[in-house]
Amino acid sequence: EQKFKGKSVLVTAAAQGIGRAIALGFADAGAKVLATDINEAVLKEIDGKNGIRTLKLNVLDDAAVKAAIAAEGPFDILINSAGVVHNGSIMEMKDEDLEFAFDLNVKSMVRTIRAVLPGMLEKGEGAIVNVASVASSIKGVPNRFAYGVTKAAVIGLTKAVAADYVGKNIRVNAICPGTVESPSLQDRMRAQGDYDTARAAFVARQPIGRLGTPEEIADLALHLAGATYTTGQAIAIDGGWTI
Ligand code: NAD
């Protein structure tokens, strides 16, 4: 099905995990996808797949974000997928971790949204999907202070932009995944020393009995990008973690 035929889509953090699955999903659905990431080597793996174009882009760099969007835009759809997980409670966290989490998880989305909005306003339509987490304002998760604070901010940012632009035919929604099979989750499980025990603990959080897949998250991103009566919503997709 070519549901997004002719639409142009920008995806951040598209080299691996959820962002990659979203880029592939839109390309399958006929969209013109610009997949971006700082990890150029891994990003290259999806270059050319169903017409995907790739571009090295660091979402911490405001000038680079502006330049890339000016050169490659306008876009109909923006997917903000960049994010980082820090461990630790409020007492254990380092201040620089919180600063960095705000920069990568929240301000990156401010940068990309500010850069794509003029083009969307000119087109008279646009859809933005931000990847948050259930570890946010939805649920307090132990050992994830900086992550939970910044992902809650993503939900606030989503609703604030949605409220300002709802009359301009621009919709903004957030996806709040539970635990999803991804390269960085693999790293977190390995970092705990005993991989099998760590994996079992991550699986046990989901009453559905397994981790989510990036493709399941991508399905929701495509749905929200095309959900013409939905804006300002934060949708959990978490295998029942927050039932
Ligand atoms: P991941 O963490 O495995 O990959 C992240 C990607 O982001 C990498 O390709 C990396 O190169 C890229 N990246 C890092 N810094 C960047 C920068 N400055 N500019 C551009 N790209 C950069 O992928 P994931 O686990 O699927 O996570 C994607 C998003 O989903 C994140 O926002 C994450 O917080 C969120 N999320 C993940 C899970 C999960 O369990 N995996 C759960 C909830 C939310």
Descriptive overview:
With 243 residues, the protein is of the alpha/beta class. It has two domains: 8-177 and 214-236, NAD(P)-binding Rossmann-like Domain (Rossmann fold, 3-Layer(aba) Sandwich), CATH 3.40.50; 182-211, no CATH class. 45% of the residues lie in helices and 15% in strands. It has helices at 17-28, 40-43, 62-72, 95-123, 145-165, 183-191, 195-204, 214-226, and strands at 8-11, 32-37, 53-56, 77-80, 126-131, 170-177, 234-237. The chain has a seven-stranded parallel sheet with strand order 3-2-1-4-5-6-7, with helices on both faces. It is globular. The two termini are 32 Å apart. The mean pLDDT is 98. It binds nicotinamide-adenine-dinucleotide. Nicotinamide-adenine-dinucleotide (NAD) binds at residues 12-13, 15-19, 37-39, 58-60, 81-83, 104, 131, 133, 177, 179-180, 182-185, 214. Residues 12-13, 15-19, 37-39, 58-60, 81-83, 104, 131, 133, 177, 179-180, 182-185, 214 line the site of nicotinamide-adenine-dinucleotide (NAD).
**Strand order, biggest sheet?**
3-2-1-4-5-6-7
Helical fraction: 40-55%
Order of helices and strands: EHEHEHEHEHEHHHE
CATH C-level category of the largest domain: Alpha Beta
